Amino acid sequence: MALGKGRLEAFSDGVIAIIITIMVLELKVPHEESLEALKPLIPVFLSYLLSFVYVGIYWNNHHHTMQAVRSINGKILWANLHLLFWLSLIPFVTAWMGENHLTQWPVFFYGIVLIMNGIAYRILALSLIKHHGENSLIAQAFGNDFKGKISVALYAVAIICTWLNPTISVIIYVVVAGSWFIPDKRFERLLESE
Amino acid sequence: MALGKGRLEAFSDGVIAIIITIMVLELKVPHEESLEALKPLIPVFLSYLLSFVYVGIYWNNHHHTMQAVRSINGKILWANLHLLFWLSLIPFVTAWMGENHLTQWPVFFYGIVLIMNGIAYRILALSLIKHHGENSLIAQAFGNDFKGKISVALYAVAIICTWLNPTISVIIYVVVAGSWFIPDKRFERLLESE
Amino acid sequence: MALGKGRLEAFSDGVIAIIITIMVLELKVPHEESLEALKPLIPVFLSYLLSFVYVGIYWNNHHHTMQAVRSINGKILWANLHLLFWLSLIPFVTAWMGENHLTQWPVFFYGIVLIMNGIAYRILALSLIKHHGENSLIAQAFGNDFKGKISVALYAVAIICTWLNPTISVIIYVVVAGSWFIPDKRFERLLESE
Amino acid sequence: MALGKGRLEAFSDGVIAIIITIMVLELKVPHEESLEALKPLIPVFLSYLLSFVYVGIYWNNHHHTMQAVRSINGKILWANLHLLFWLSLIPFVTAWMGENHLTQWPVFFYGIVLIMNGIAYRILALSLIKHHGENSLIAQAFGNDFKGKISVALYAVAIICTWLNPTISVIIYVVVAGSWFIPDKRFERLLESE
């Protein structure tokens, strides 16, 4: 009897649900009732929107990936916790970026957290592939993971860009998010053909 | 093998559970021990009550709807996340309305968030119907969704009313909530007849 | 096909887990490092402990009760949400009582919230019994619910006592909690005999 | 019919997910955008990292242990809630230690909470073994629980060390965490051989 994946999914759902929801607490309620009182919240709101999409992408991909998983082991549990750790830092960098409108360091650290999440997801994928074998459904579904690698490369470019123009960096973050918005058809196709 | 609905339900339960609970954090604990210290909290409490009922209605309807769902796809995952995004803004507008006792802009944005939730639910319903087919249980259960459409229309009326008298707008929100309080018999009847 | 109880359990677990955990946020971290800095936190900590036990009791009883439930309906969903509403107010009254060391009004409202929770649980029980029938396992397990009724009566006594001596009220709360600490054997016995 | 373990797992997942995530809220967003603004957050971040690993270890061990559990009873529910209570205090001591960089009392109470968690886990294990019998899978998996006992002993040493040098205490906490980082092979081996 191998370790089941049920609780790993349930725990990840719980943590990701909390991460995606506590970000909204940074939208501090203004004490005034005027329309102008909302203006300073616009960049905070846009940061929230971007991060909501990113966390949503991770949950989506996690959901698709785990669908193809048959069993897990102790290493996979830690690879998953490692991913959750970097995801848990998204609310912090989101709030920092939201408060300081596209200045270098907040945008820089937002990129660092994104790149670490990308790497953590890759580590989780590799530990899943190793556990299931090179011919497994999950190994085929990831393939050479071109999309994952190009995303990490683009985050790196964006991080460097923060020295030149942080706005370009944020545009890159938005573009990468957009490219992942389309759910990972690889898994759906493979699962259907099964 | 199609994508299962289990994790979509679990994740939605998690997010909705957090949304419904963090609203209570706006009931800031008074530093004094007198009965008068609670007075300023009365509008905050009433806002909380209204929003608790609204979030409860969405959870209830989500529960009933998903009961008739057989499988999901990537588009449905995003339609669901889109609904959760608008639900996640309810605590913010609740707190703003609670602090500023029925003045125009807080009541206006409360209505905007309600109308966006109504639209997001409709989008989710349409993507579920498209996936299951026009003759599916879920398509029959929604029917022409008269109740959903009339609610969105009433939210629109309420939003316009904020220029005239925000109190009327809030009365409309309360009336619409009351009409949804009665659980969606359509699903129960159809599920029973199955 | 009747409505399943799975999501009602999952959603309740989520809400109760959040309630029991956010109470700890009232233990504000002292800025000083001395042992004395913890002293003002002692009543806050004791309030937290009492409320943790109360919320734990409700989760425990909910778990035991739902074990005997076969299916649910829309009314039961709302009876359950009603219970969750009153449970969600426990962190607020806990924090208020913790800050104001056993003075009348905080202790009074703590009792009000406890009595409303007791009544809400009774309403949930009655709606479950009505749905399952008078000869059902769940009806037998509740019996005449002597323990539930006596608790509500004691909360009422404690609420009145706040005018005389709030300390007595708190002692009553502790005693009632102690009496529920012992898990509800009725359900375990009935479930085993099944 | 015995009490199922499903909800105990789901509720524990919920509480642990919240505990591990709310700790990140102590990383207060700086109002400035400079790199220097992050400096005071470094000890807070390191405390967060250590506590994330500790909570992760408990979740991991809980997951492995519950995998071997067949059924539960009322006592086990309370032993589990008792563990969750001590886990819920980790965010508080983490934040206090993070703010006061390795001074005696924060490090002392961090150790107290760790030792109480170790003891609570032992009580849970004993109540599970008692329920399943001395020859059960779970009794074999725990064995004499050498690792658990040595950890509690080391926490005790670390607590005493806070009078001499709190830095040594923190090093002990890190070393013990490291020794648990490796997942509990006992359960995996036993479950596989089953």
UniProtKB/TrEMBL annotation, chains A, B, C, D:
Pfam families (alphabetical): TMEM175 (PF06736)
Enzymatic reactions: K(+)(in) = K(+)(out)
Localization in the cell: Membrane
Gene Ontology cellular-component annotations: membrane
Domain of life where this protein originates: Bacteria
Record has DNA-binding as a keyword: no
Keywords in alphabetical order: Ion channel, Ion transport, Membrane, Potassium, Potassium channel, Potassium transport, Transmembrane, Transmembrane helix, Transport
Single GO MF descriptor: potassium channel activity
Spans traversing the lipid bilayer: 7-25, 37-57, 77-96, 108-129, 150-182
Topology in membrane: Multi-pass membrane protein
UniProt keyword Membrane, yes or no: yes
Family (UniProt): Belongs to the TMEM175 family.
Protein name: Uncharacterized membrane protein
